[in-house]
Write a structure and sequence with these properties.
The protein is mainly beta. It folds into two domains: about 400 residues, TolB, C-terminal domain (Neuraminidase, 6 Propeller), CATH 2.120.10.30; about 80 residues, Immunoglobulin-like. The chain has three helices and 39 strands.
Length: about 475
């Protein structure tokens, strides 16, 4: 019975969303980096601006520290940079080198005031002991992660599981397709929070560039950049939940258990003969949750787990799609961000659609001005996207639910919000003749996620916001939609 259920979980491909052209908002100090106005395509209600561009060379993954400052690992500059926005205007005030030189650092996380930086052969732990913004103190942590090889995948992604108290680290393959002699290559490793207890929890992943913890189930997810030299459209890239101890196909098979064609290229012939052990491993493979176009290189995963964005888009998470390389695919694909959504909880079926496009301007000649790489969000659920090629930059994506509210649902009456901005107690007042038709007020954050609902019992409703993080919010009610700020 279990096997039947597994086979009913079909993988899905990316569908075309209804996206609207949006002009990229560029602050005056950044305009010299853009030779003309740029347009990107987003779902209705979303807009995008340049958060920072200038001194970045190859910005990869990002993370916010406990105080709300954004940090980015720059593989080109060999530093971790801080990008504070103290005045909250959505534009970085400056760029600050926050660590000593780091070697090809691809990702970072913060935990208990420490910064953990993923290099090809180690995870470094930094602390800012004098609280000046520079992480000058280094403690010994994880070392001897395998690296090097003829087709070395050396980028390391680290993610924190704060519930189960683990770090996860990807270790890409040393080649495109070969029989590895090191059992830790093409895997995901798990460590205790003190760096001990190393365990291989998934294998057969050529390069699991994206790792993230899905917040509802606390499951580990991964994206995988799969192998080359099997043709333009084989194999599809996967985005899937990681089950501990499972095998995910590389180098023998892909998808839910399709063996590679060993005649496609000499390196695949070197895999022969396929053994009974190989076949037994492949037989355990499950269908991935989502598949996308071959060679499109899915990278960072960001789970959002929001409700329907006022009929704009169903969004549970975002994936940065880095894009194909000219030598690996005839026609360029990717160079975008896709959204993913769980369409059926019982069967755990997922679907995907385009969320942000426009960086790739010529798929035949491979002309582009941005390659999406890292994703992060702040406490107000504002999304940040790094692009590490074309124009190396970090972008900020916001959502305004008032743009997608159906106007015919509301009268012309207005809500009165006092005070605005608020500290802890919000007072909402509406005219008495609309109260019978509206039982609840709904409060949404800036991305349109409903964070609070309260039944109306009188003309004046008081809401305790003491546990709300700072940021912009929207109240929806029969008489309209009103924006307010929590200081």
């Amino acid at each position: 019975m279990i096997r039947i259920i597994l086979f009913l979980i079909f993988f899905v491909t990316v569908s075309q969303a209804q996206l609207i052209p949006r002009e990229l908002s560029v602050a005056p100090q950044f305009q010299s980096h853009y030779d003309s106005a740029r347009t990107l395509n987003l779902p209705k209600g979303f807009s995008i601006n340049v958060f920072y561009v200038g001194a970045l060379e190859r910005p990869r993954y990002m993370a916010f520290d406990e105080s709300g400052v954004l940090y980015v690992a720059d593989m080109g500059a060999k530093h971790i940079f801080a990008l504070p926005d103290k005045n909250g205007d959505g534009i970085a005030d400056t760029i600050i080198s926050a660590t000593p030189i780091v070697d090809s650092a691809h990702s970072l996380v913060f935990y208990h005031q420490a910064m953990y930086v993923a290099e090809p052969t180690r995870i470094r732990k930094f602390r800012d002991t004098n609280h000046d913004g520079y992480f000058e103190t280094e403690d010994s942590f994880i070392v001897n992660i395998p690296s090097r090889g003829p087709y070395d995948h050396y980028t390391r992604t680290i993610v924190l599981d704060s519930i189960n108290k683990y770090f996860y680290v990807n270790v890409g393959a040393s080649c495109n397709a070969c029989r590895e002699t090191d059992s830790e290559r093409a895997t995901i490793l798990r460590y205790n929070l003190d760096g001990t207890g190393k365990l291989i929890i998934a294998s057969g992943l050529r390069n699991a560039l994206g790792l993230a913890i899905e917040p509802t189930t606390n499951a580990l997810w991964a994206t995988n950049a799969d192998r080359d030299n099997l043709g333009d459209d084989i194999p599809p890239e996967i985005i899937t939940k990681i089950d501990s101890g499972h095998f995910y196909g590389w180098p023998y098979a892909y998808g839910g258990g399709v063996f590679v064609n060993p005649t496609s290229d000499p390196e695949y012939q070197n895999l022969l003969p396929f053994t009974a052990i190989d076949s037994a491993k492949v037989a355990t493979m499950n269908e991935p949750k989502i598949t996308i176009e071959a060679h499109s290189t899915p990278m960072s995963i960001l789970f959002v787990r929001n409700n329907n964005f006022h009929n704009s888009i169903l969004l549970d998470g975002l994936i940065a799609i880095h894009g194909s390389a000219k030598g690996g695919r005839t026609v360029g694909v990717g160079y975008k961000v896709i959204s993913i959504h769980q369409k059926d909880v019982i069967s755990d079926q997922w679907e995907a659609q385009d969320f942000l496009t426009g960086f790739l301007t010529d798929s035949i000649l491979y002309k582009f001005w941005g390659r999406p790489c890292g994703l992060a969000k702040d406490v107000s659920d504002v999304i940040y996207l790094s692009c590490d090629a074309g124009i190396p930059a970090i972008y900020r994506i916001t959502f305004d639910p008032t743009e997608v509210v159906r106007k015919d649902e509301y009268s012309n009456e207005e809500l009165i919000i006092t005070p605005n901005p608020v500290e802890n107690i919000l007072t909402i007042q509406a005219s008495s003749n609309t109260l019978p038709n509206a039982e609840f007020i709904h409060i949404y954050n800036i991305l349109g996620c409903e964070v609070y609902k309260q039944r109306l019992s009188s003309e004046q409703t008081r809401v305790d916001l003491s546990l709300f993080p700072k940021g912009e919010y929207f109240v929806r009610y029969k008489s309209g939609t009103t924006k307010f700020w929590k200081r």
